[in-house]
Amino acid sequence: MIRDLISAAIDEESKPYWDGLQEEKLFIQYCSDCKKSIFYPRTLCPHCFSDEISWQEALGTGTIYSFTTVHQASGPFKDETPFVVGVVELDEGVRMMTRILGEKDQIAIDKKVAVVFKKIADDFVLPYFEVI
Amino acid sequence: MATDRIAAIVGVAESDLGKTPGKNVLQLQAQAAKLALEDAGLEKQDIDAVFTAGNWAWAPNLMLAEYLGIQPKYTDSTNIGGSSFEAHVGHAAAGIKAGLFEVALITYGSTNRTNPSNSQFKSPLTAQYELPYGLPTPVGAYALAAMRHMHQYGTTSEQLAEIAVATRKWATLNEKAYMKEEITIEDVLNSRKIAEPLNLLDCCLVSDGGGAVIVASKEVATKLPKKPVWILGHGESHSHNTITNMPDFTVTSARESGKRAFEMAGITQAEIDVAEIYDSFTITVLLTLEALGFCKHGEGGAFVSGQRTAPGGDFPMNTNGGGLSYCHPGMYGIFLLIEAARQLRGECGSRQVENASLALVHGTGGVLSSTSTVILGRD
Question: ipTM higher than 0.90?
Fold first, then answer.
């Protein structure tokens, strides 16, 4: 159901990311020219426009850049409220949207978090993060 | 003022607003276009450029111009969300300056309330990395920005509520406003939580409605019965599409678009008499005021405190009641231009800002993604 929202977008460019999650690995990209990490997946480095890009497994740790507790949601998320959506800055320097797990009073901006692989369906795993 | 008078807003109008069951987006735009032409004292055959933005057709300009019976020699469907129409005004002024056309029609129409358009794309492309987490769009993205601003600067929910309360006061003075009952800061704080820290009354309305703005060259504008509202400065920018990729959640590209608009107009922030600033959410306004340089970064909360932007305050803002209380049909930017033009013409009755001669109009689109700033003035 949730996968239906994005299945049309999973293509050669994004497949390695989604396939990695199935194996509980969080893959991001790395530019061998400017030495910066890249997320989301692209065929050109958005920093220097190089096409010397490779996949690397992320450490899986980072900090909360921002978060919000959602009380009104739609579609497949309607009955899940309240839940916490966050933007996490990985230690590699890239940001990603995610769900933040943990007690509400433990969730705060700048708190350290680590990835947990959440099985949404047999063929769909998402990287959530929990406060460490 | 350093700026040459090259192009002006010469006609403005809204269509029916609020709930418009039975009317489609073309009818609303046609209604607004006809009224705006009447307001300008121009005829349909005077229009030689067409601007619109929407997601109700694969090529909205083609459908709208055919419906109106116009074959323009210049066409622009720039769509950067709610700030599109401020961009259209800038593009129209540039086109007129280049001698490409004389009279531009800019329209918008939406049935967001009674018959929302379904802009489902086959593939969400880069949105695939956000959609699975259930963030309500766009409110959740603005909530993330508000949380970050609160964290960095100690901004409070009470300060955000000041904006909603002041804007509602203006709405009580506008007969076309949808919400006209006064509210208090407590009302905002006690309204239903949507995405923390934003509550229901921090959020804009969901309305139907359309609007039209006519931009004309100096040669045309100075021959018309109403005084021209000169386009003195314009700037536009966009910094991201998905909220995750906003470089700094507390700084919008208003910093760039505003800077260019002020430079082009050759004026400073202190000279602005009335500001019409996109208020999709209370936080949108606060971030914009900072990025435009009306106050320092982090001081937006203090700036709006004490009902400073309300009627009688020393910073008149969103004088029609804003997207928060007047109307908000999805891409609200055109209504900011309409209100600013009316203020500069002195047509606003009980909500008129006395002696308003310079107005700032600022649109914000997407999830704080795009901005476009226009500075308008009268002789």
Answer: yes
